[in-house]
Records
---
Amino acid sequence: MSAALIAGRATLAVVHRDAQIFLSYRTRVLSQLANAIFTLTLFHFLAQLVHVDTFDSPRAYFAFVTVGVVILQVLSSCFGTPALVRQELVAGTFEKLVVSPFGALRGIVALTLFPFLYSLLLGSATIALATLLFGLQIDWALAPLCLPLAALSVLAFLPFGLLFAALTLVVKQSAVGTTWVIALLSLVGGLYFPVSLLPAWIRWVSEVQPFSTAVGLMRHLLVDSPLHASPWVGVAKLAAFALLLMPIAIATVSAAIRVGRRRGTILEY
Amino acid sequence: MTETALGAAAGAAAVQSPAADELELWPALELCGVRKRWPKAKEPVLAGIELELAPGAVAWIAGSNGAGKTTLLRIVAGLLAPDGGTVRLDGMAPDRERAAYQRAIGLISAGDRGLHARLTVRQDLGYWAGLAMLGRAAGRAAVERAIEAFDLGGLAGHRVDRLSMGQRQRVRIAMAFMHEPRLLLLDEPTTSLDEEGRACLHAAVAERVAAGCAVLWCSPTGERPGVPLDAQYALVGGRLAAA
């Protein structure tokens, strides 16, 4: 059996474990679906207040913000990695990753997979609920393209989560940092309102991170929002973020593990 | 070859395991000048550890609380990096041949952590089989062997957070053995175990030793392992002394 296949199975073991733990809390799925319904209901009624030039109708704003909410779920799953690493440290299960042939580095990357897959499911459910309960109009012909786009988006988002995971290994705390970043991106990333409404001096922030690009492309595919440039420009931008940042993030996590082993803090929490 | 290694190899022969005759004469584990000092500590916790352990040999390292036994085992396990010195297992270094090195190590760390409270015993063992990269069929077989060897059959479907401390310790021990390591690192492994649990542990150690696995057993001074020993050391002042 090839080494890659065995490593793939080890990765699946981590995903399988995370799914087993998640499903051991039987009401968690229901409560998160209920959250999605509450959020959609809130924005459905808030959308009735929206009468601005940017949107043709309240329905257009509801479509806009629903996709933003879905992207926020994917974004939060990527930024959840530091909390997962901390949970492993506290439970003493991180030690098992370090002493296993699979290793801590691959283990940390594998930790990101279940939250991402679950965010895709939850995002799909959110879209389905918005369609069924609030009449969201979806462009079904292009909707399947959202899956590869989501995968590419995660590759672009994930380095940020991995960098915070590295920080967790070294200083043991990074929850506040991830919360701030998610809050900041919610404001300037175009998730709840168009970037064009921001003051001119802060708009540049939407250009230097992949989240605004991802949400723009996702809206284009799902609800036919117009793009300012070719979709391929956005795809290239996401790919560039992934190619540039992923090696940096992996090298940083690797360095954090080395530092932790040398300073003896790798098992502290 | 040093006296220690010869003694250990001779000791392994005394166990009279079938595989003992086939043991190679070079050490399975070789520690040379291993040093470790914690930040802000005046004295090093390990001040030049020298140790050779032959395949199939069992060595006991005794020491008072805080003597550095756990630190030593963590360095050998690849969890911590030493400040100086070298660690070799069958010629492999933990940094250079990491995956192969870790595949050869079985570690029971001190304490009761490292299990997933929400998983069942079988799920937890299955997870470790995956991390140990055993492959699907070999992993399943290893889980079943571990359940049988540590008498976990009645508990296999129980969630870990519903087990007693002794039962959890059996699961932790089973994990260390299930990928058939060539070096077992046991840090106070009998913690919380009843007589039956100790018997399972001793039988499993004997079986691995018979297959040529070396064992490094650490426990506080006075708490002797209940298995035949080939070498005994005391860890005092950061150094190993024959006891």
---
Amino acid sequence: MKTLWQIFAIARNEFRFGLRRGAPVVVTAVIGLLLGAGILMSTGDNIQNVDVRMQQFTPNQVAQLAKNGITVEVWQFLSPGSFADLIAMDTTGAWGYIYLALLLLPIATAGTVPADRQFGVFELLRSTPIDGSTYLAGKVLGVIGLVVFIACFPFLLFLVALEGIMLKFIGFGIPLGLIMLHLKLSVMDGLPILASGAALGVLAGVAFQTRRKAILPGFITGLLGIFSWLSAFRFPVSSQNISDVAAYSIFQKYQSIWQALWDRLFKPDSFLSSYEFSLVGIGEPAVGIARVLIMYLVILAVLAGLFGLARLWLQWKENI
Amino acid sequence: MITVSQLTKTYGKKVQALRGVYLEIGSGMFGLVGPNGAGKTTLMRILAGLLRPTSGKVSVLGNDVTTGRGKLAVKSVLGYLPQELGLYPDLTALEFLEFVALLKGMTDRAERDKQINENLELVGLTSDARRKMRTFSGGMKRRVGIAQALLGSPQLLIVDEPTAGLDPEERVHLRNLLAEMAGRCTVILSTHIVEDISQSCSNLAIINMGQVLFRGSPRDIIENVRGKVWQVTTDGKRLDPGMAIVSTMQIQNGVQYRLVCERVDGWPAVPAEPNLEDGYIWLMQQARINQNNSK
């Protein structure tokens, strides 16, 4: 019980400290500016083509696409020449965007432990009856909590933007079911990636004295994270335009895995119908629950291994 | 009771911070004095379970701090104020103290709040408790450090250079506070300011170059130097800088020196009443002579 309180204290402190330093505002503002700038730069041309594009679909198809958050090239700036899938914030992963989290988050979070050294608090913390595992667990949970909290703001920003775009160009607002779908997919798809990216960074930065020195290891960890993730969970993709399609396909396939898990657990009777809103889900072979569990286990095993290494380092170098 | 025997600590291959230290520390307030780089902080860190000794035995309140279990046991009854105290600048003093209290295992909220408020009052920070610590002066930060060290009613309080950065009034207040704490637990005070020790410690050790030069009471040190403290008044002429001058004071029509040495040749010298600082200077002087002789 005492250990849980200690973990809670460290996590809450990390969370609070991150908030006070304005991280949510900065991240949301950057994403907002990116999206806003993209819309301003590209939407005009795209919108001119919307009617032409829409003519390629029947009204029912357009309505169906819109209900599923799929519009036509409105956000083309992120995905030249392809559909712009607006399902949830994390669906930016359709362009490989979410995988940037695996690269960027470790850079941002690698300084978590070095910051304690830099502020001169580490020696004080070491004098309290906490062990290395408690300290690391608190740090990792705090950072994950902060990252998830921050992610809520771009998510809301996304919903507002989507609502505006749909009202203006398609004529009706976001159905409640679609909002729930966005939320569900964000939780299923986005959080594991965000959490893994954040945790990887914390563990990679343990050995470094200053936040600045932890940037490079964070970057390297991020790169390794992306390649490991994709190589572990990707499906074969064949396309002429591999750079545009690869991340999209991988993400959609990954999303299908999550969807399969979700359906297996919560909607066993409507398993097949749930693939209606997955662009590549229809006609794809169903993903077995064992595969999903293996994916979970692989992620957890990798993180646990890194956690163990970081723990050993703290024990060896810091006597904690 | 704290016992240290044959304690050594080497950083890397060359820097020997502690060289076979033997020490016994009982209850009450114990002073650890020595010049910068003497090994005081290293010894404090080992006693607090923060640093692994290279060799030797350390028992703190019956726990062997070289083992994981013993280390945690010591930390659970420890109050520690490090020399280089850092605080989270974006937290308030109240939040920081609550954070440390939880880390110390104070899970009962009512007890935690009570102690935090008491300690804030004790260090005179009640009215500033909700201010972010980035706005605190050096002295205020030090006081937050004291308040956190006192959380959890520690049985052992280790304070490393606690008066650094404090103004004279704050120093006196802190010394009184530590002396009061010494009635309830063992307090180890490390400093290079002899005055801090002379005002509050009944026992002390002088450490230099990783070795204990002296272990006893302030009175013992003073007696040790009795008859070797002199006052010399000149008409403005300067003494040989090689002489062990403790203090120099400009007076009307001359300069008054206080010296610590066996005898003063060539100057009119008057014996003076020794104090702790004289005793400390004398011991350090003797240590230097011994070191030179051994070379």
